């Protein structure tokens, strides 16, 4: 069963935290961004951010609420066929909500550069150097066929960082078991208005606004 993920407002940078499941669900809401739409310019322009957040993410939230309500009704009726048929909508829209709630916090107008502390040491340990890590995640993200995401995740069982790609809106943890630390959205709606079909240019630019403080905080939390 898909669990509900809470979203915080402008006062909190941590937008994703597991709470309850459909049994005692509340409606999901679109999280406020912790910065203005134009704050990431020139790397990601205001028009992209406005459409990406207020239209695309909002659609995932709305559709997830509809799918969960139908699922709740199907549960009450014991309609297993309906429950099964709703799984793709729950996965797609739930994943879209989870992924984007992480994505907004992974970006910052004061971002860029390199991480520090434990995260940097882990990157050096698992990838050899920050430059190697950056190249690997960029290559994986460029190589996503169609729409999807490039991820830096944490393998809790092995105690190491891993890079992975997910298709469409598949959530990283739900499909690979890796705990998401840094996600890069490579759907065309994330960059097309500014970078057209040149995904590598978008990926080169996005490193200038990566919020390493947030990624480091996520890494510290998942190790506990």
TrEMBL record:
* Domain Manganese/iron superoxide dismutase C-terminal: start-end pairs: 115-218
According to the entry, every stretch annotated as the Manganese/iron superoxide dismutase N-terminal domain falls at 27-108
Needed cofactors, names only, are:
Mn(2+)
Q: Name one GO cellular component term.
A: mitochondrial matrix
InterPro entries reported in the protein's UniProt record = Fe/Mn_Superoxide_Dismutase, Mn/Fe_SOD, Mn/Fe_SOD_BS, Mn/Fe_SOD_C, Mn/Fe_SOD_N, Mn/Fe_SOD_N_sf, SOD_C_sf
Q: Which UniProt keywords apply?
A: Manganese, Metal-binding, Mitochondrion, Nitration, Oxidoreductase
Q: Which domain of life is it from?
A: Eukaryota
Identify the residues that bind Mn(2+). 52, 100, 185, 189
A single Gene Ontology MF term assigned here is: manganese ion binding
Q: What is its EC number?
A: 1.15.1.1
The cellular location(s) given in this protein's UniProt record come to: Mitochondrion matrix
Reaction(s) this enzyme catalyzes, per UniProt: 2 superoxide + 2 H(+) = H2O2 + O2
Gene3D superfamilies recorded for this chain? Answer: Fe,Mn superoxide dismutase (SOD) domain, Iron/manganese superoxide dismutase, C-terminal domain
Family to which this protein belongs: Belongs to the iron/manganese superoxide dismutase family.
- State what this protein does: Destroys superoxide anion radicals which are normally produced within the cells and which are toxic to biological systems. Destroys radicals which are normally produced within the cells and which are toxic to biological systems.
Q: How does it assemble?
A: Homotetramer.
Q: What is this protein called?
A: Superoxide dismutase
Organism this protein belongs to? Ptilonorhynchus violaceus
């Amino acid at each position: 069963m898909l669990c509900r993920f809470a979203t915080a407002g402008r006062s909190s940078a941590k937008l994703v935290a597991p709470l309850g499941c459909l049994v005692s669900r509340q409606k999901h809401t679109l999280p406020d961004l912790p910065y203005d739409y134009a704050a990431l310019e020139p790397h990601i322009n205001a028009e992209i951010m406005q459409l990406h957040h207020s239209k695309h993410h909002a659609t995932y939230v709305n559709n997830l609420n509809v799918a969960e309500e139908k699922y709740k009704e199907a549960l009450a009726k014991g309609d297993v066929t309906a429950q099964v048929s709703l799984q793709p909508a729950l996965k797609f829209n739930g994943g879209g909500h989870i992924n984007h709630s992480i994505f907004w916090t992974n970006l910052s107008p004061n971002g860029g550069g390199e991480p520090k502390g434990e995260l940097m040491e882990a990157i050096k340990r698992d990838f050899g150097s920050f430059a190697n890590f950056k190249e690997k995640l960029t290559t994986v993200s460029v190589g996503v066929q169609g729409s999807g995401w490039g991820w830096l995740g944490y393998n809790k069982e092995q105690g190491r960082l891993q890079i992975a790609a997910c298709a469409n809106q598949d959530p990283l943890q739900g499909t690979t078991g890796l705990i998401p630390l840094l996600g890069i959205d490579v759907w065309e709606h994330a960059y097309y208005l500014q970078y057209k079909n040149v995904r590598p240019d978008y990926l080169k630019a996005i490193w200038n606004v990566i919020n390493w403080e947030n990624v480091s905080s996520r890494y510290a939390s998942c190790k506990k």
